[in-house]
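Cross-check.
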Amino acid sequence: MKFGLRLRGGLLATLIMFGAPMVAPVGAVFVSSPALAQTVQSITVEGNRRVEVETIRSYFKPGPGGRLDQGAIDDGLKALIETGLFQDVRINRGAGGQLIVSVVENPVIGRVAFEGNKKIKDEQLTTEVQSKARGTFSRAMVQSDTLRIAEIYRRSGRYDVRVTPEIIEQPNNRVDLIFTIEEGAKTGVKSIEFVGNNAFSSYRLRDVIKTRESNLLSFLATGDIYDPDRVEADRDLIRRFYLKNGFADVQVVAALTEYDPEKKGFNVTFKIEEGAQYRVGAVDFRSSIPNFDPSSMRTYSRVHVGSLYNVESVEKSVEEMQIEASRRGYAFAVVRPGGDRNFEAHTVSVVFNIDEGPRTYIERINLRGNTRTRDYVIRREFDISEGDAYNRALVDRAERRLKNLDYFKSVKITTEPGSSSDRVILVVDMEEKSTGDFSISGGYSTTDGALAEVSVSERNLLGRGLFAKASVTYGQYARGYSLSFVEPYLLDYRVALGLDLYQREQLANSYISYGTKTLGFSPRLGFSLREDLALQVRYSIYRQEITLPYYLANCNNNLGTSAFNPSPAFAASQTPPIDLTSTNGLGCYSDGEASLPVRKELANGKTLTSAIGYTLTYNTLDNNKNPTDGLLVDFRQDFAGVGGDVSYLKSVIDAKYYTPLVSDIVGLVRLQSGMLNKIGSDLRMLDHFQMGPNLVRGFAPNGIGPRDLNPFGTQDALGGTKYWGASLELQMPFWFLPKEVGLKGAVYADAGGLYDYKGPTSWTATNEVNAPGCIPSTINPTSTGTCTGLVYDDSKVIRSSVGVGLIWQSPFGPLRFDYAVPLSKGKYDRTQEFRFGGGTTF
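Predicted model, tokenized:
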């Protein structure tokens, strides 16, 4: 380091504290003699410029009897030095009992500047250092700031950083402070190893921790940057993972980090002592509270005999029991779990002890660190308030809820003593983070083609906990916009109100001959019934219309100018033969006419749908983005007919069950089914279920189910009112690739069916003269006729396929490639063996 001035004062204080008054160090001189012990009549201050004389004199306080003795002088000298205002302090004895205090003040900092920093901005460094412009210069503070800057760079993965402070003297006892920074290269984690893990592979444990190994795509993420705090947190994640899977004796002994100068990165090694895996041998409930039946808590236990011992299940059981006891009037009840291990049988007998806890009340709830979020947004996450009985389970639940809000980098709730022994103060410490998002998303799929989306969202609008999002989508076959707003606490109840306004346009493509335009609005209410069970009720109103190219709806009977002109030989080979001379034959389809139900939708124009519905969701997945264990079930029902032009009842269920198998292989079982019931008016074709690879992979979108059989039309998929599907899938990693690449494979088998078309087969039409099956009242272009004769396939064939997939959790977003081969299919089904889909946000 470059210092232009000499350090003074600190050594003197040290020597005085250790009783060495006869030594006069450089920088702080005190003349010790018998004369000095005489009574001090006055104190004279010399050399001060900014610090007032009376301020300096105030540090020398007379002792008992009003005398300024040797001890008081020593204390005053040390106190002056510790202020950091002076670089030199001298005390001398003058004539007539005069005490002379000579000081040399520390300079004033004119400016603080940073040079060489490119990765971290000046603004961030300025807020981190203690040395400030117009503040007092202190060498100790400069030393501390230097270390702080280096630490900030190390947190961002740059361990080769060099920070050099330079002090430039200016007139009038001022200095400029310059920190010259050599940032160095980014220091990443080159390898992560696990020692002592037998039950779980290193590949599986890398899923548990947050630290990642460096790879070619590391520049898009930060998980590979070495952070000692994150490594320490990973130790706890590993321990919690083992405890969740029955290893009650597990210990993560150490997390060793070693810098490898050749690789220019860190090697991280976690040492694990797994111990034995335990199952629950017995579950018992005991209570020391009079008239409290402990067995009544059994229904709130998530621990069951024979299951793996799971610490998380024990903790959730304690929370549920303690809250239920509080509801019953036992506000101070405390549930304490205990366990007796049988080391030979590898079982744990779990006992829930329900006792009367100390009668403690909450005096206050103090919030610290919420500079933007309103206090009431935080307080409403508590099920307790000031004056209530202190309940640790409810406090822990509030802390978990605050973390789940995703408004804060960190949340910690601690207790402090209150005004009396039976009072506590809850202190909520938070660190806010940015909650706004601006994203540009892009993707491509074999169904929707190229697609781009621009969206702006805010999770904590105006600091009131509101959610708002606006997005615009433009793609090859899909376009539209949407506006969303969510109030999570409607009228101060834990009920979420959502409002959605959207407009979508689906263009005709190789899978459907027609396009659709939809404009809708949907308010909804969400209720959290339990941590794993949620209910949403909604109302939807939307207007929909079909669009068709002119040539698919013109019913052109001019065979000479039509796009399709069947030869006589071809016409004669058809069953029944085509009569090319008839004015009421198939000539109307000679240029490829759309199916009858499609043309009816087009003739009907815009249709209004008004529906109410609900969704019940049960979710026990261990990870919503990349699940390996748990169950997700969605059951939805929508009733259309609350006004509008259509009426029906649509019911859908979709269940996914994930379970870990062997060698990091995850099994997935998926079952899905749906039913559309007619109520009152006829069903539209657009209300039917349309299925393809979303039910059985290996088939094209709208590729299965009832289909128009007209050989000269577009042969549109008509959809069905009933469907079912079943899938078995095994997902496995590529063990020969680094975990951080994010690639895994899948093999699967699908089966399903879509059938029972109940849409229109005829209608009274205008301008459909000479259409097959349309019998006009007169041969006139403006006549009205009855269109009949729709011929379609509705066989109840079971479609099935097998295939392989490639799943990539890429830095660009989730991508999936599938190749499936149909094993059984309907005669008129359309297949698509390869399928690709994905997108990104940046």
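The first strand starts at residue 28 and ends at 30. The CA atoms of residues 693 and 839 lie 18 Å apart. Passed to J.P. for a second look.
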